[in-house]
Design goal:
It is a single chain. Helix content is about 10%, strand content about 35%. With about 140 residues, the protein is mainly β. It folds into 2 domains: about 10-50; about 75-140, no CATH class. The chain has a 5-stranded mixed sheet with strand order 5-6-7-8-9. A 4-stranded antiparallel sheet has the order 1-2-3-4, with no helix packed on it. The chain is rod-shaped, with a radius of gyration of 40 Å. The structure holds zinc ion (ZN).
């Protein structure tokens, strides 16, 4: 299997600038088994060896790294706040929630849907923000 080894005088396909296409060339000079100078068999012009167009580099299909979700989860803060709260409060102090009842900030309530929650602040007329295990909810109040 020595067909791949070339030497001066061999024929090789190369791009010829004069002919504007790949033509058969005769190797004029070799360096380390690589043809460096060839002569076109069609137009007889000698030039540097150019690899045939087939030797294309594979297109680098670099995908940009997927943007990481670096934004802090807005609910994560509430969950942490809830966990701290949950470990400190006394569930028996919670009062059943009623939209007609007047509450105080920091009071504990027991909501039929959301469970235990702590009133964070009042927001507008007869509305209050209550922190539950699943997040802050806006509830009616008296
Ligand atoms: Zn040529």
């Amino acid at each position: 299997m020595s067909s791949s080894s070339l030497s001066a005088g061999d024929y090789i396909a190369s791009k010829c600038t004069k002919c504007g296409q790949e033509t058969n060339h005769t190797i004029v000079a070799m360096v380390d088994d690589v043809p460096v100078k060839v002569q076109c068999n069609t137009c007889s012009s000698a030039h540097k060896y150019r690899k045939p167009a087939a030797a294309k580099k594979p297109a680098a299909a670099r995908k940009p790294a997927a943007p990481r979700k670096s934004k802090a989860d807005p609910q994560a803060a509430e969950r942490q706040q809830w966990q701290e709260l949950e470990s400190s409060f006394n569930p028996s102090a919670a009062v059943a929630y009623s939209m007609d009842t007047t509450y105080k900030v920091r009071a504990l309530i027991d909501h039929p849907t959301f469970g235990l929650g702590q009133i964070q602040e009042f927001a507008g007329t007869r509305k209050m923000l209550v922190l539950f295990a699943e997040g802050t909810k806006v509830l009616r109040c008296g």
